Amino acid sequence: MSAPREGGVAVLFALEREAAPFRRAVRGQKHVAVCVSGMGRARARRAAEQILRDPVPRLVIAAGFCGALVPALRVGDVVTSPRIITVDHLVTDPAEKRRLGETHDAVDMESSAIAEVCAGRGVAFRAVRAVSDTVDTALSPELARLLSGGNVSPLKACYALCFKPSLLGEFLRLARGTKLAARALAVALEGIVSTSATAAPATASPG
């Protein structure tokens, strides 16, 4: 895991497919570090603790995909803290999304853990997420199991498709959504890091 120059920006993603467009966009920019932690609070916390070793970045961003909790958000929309809630599981049921949507706009699995580490060190933090699935999008239990580790095994995917061919439509829809979200996220993050040297970032509380 690389570190930015002192006073730089560290951007933490859970998955490489979330990070890839932004990584390409900032290649060669020494003040920006792109880190991939893996899914979930524990991995995100470890990555944040590691990136906050010397040299300490000026700003840490928790970035990646999120699920929409309100009808106004569409795939590719960008959401920032404190409108995001962090939970410990993939939220696959529209009914659960709507319940969470009573208090928040979007859901992820890492941001609050990173925020807590940054708060403990007095480092500015922001969560910046792009919607990959809408509030009405349901994921089947089979697809949720395949996605739970972050990296989908081709062998397991083929096995699942043999038993439930209708999963192909879900796979394709999700692939389109995550591709659009990753591109939108990269654009938003480029704008943030390009102004971070002169603008004081807002510090967010854990979700």
From TrEMBL:
Residues 28-86, 88-137 form the Nucleoside phosphorylase domain. SUPFAM superfamilies: Purine and uridine phosphorylases (SSF53167). GO terms for cellular component: cytosol. This is Nucleoside phosphorylase domain-containing protein. Pfam families: PNP_UDP_1. GO terms for molecular function: adenosylhomocysteine nucleosidase activity; methylthioadenosine nucleosidase activity. GO terms for biological process: L-methionine salvage from S-adenosylmethionine; nucleoside metabolic process. Transmembrane segments: none annotated.
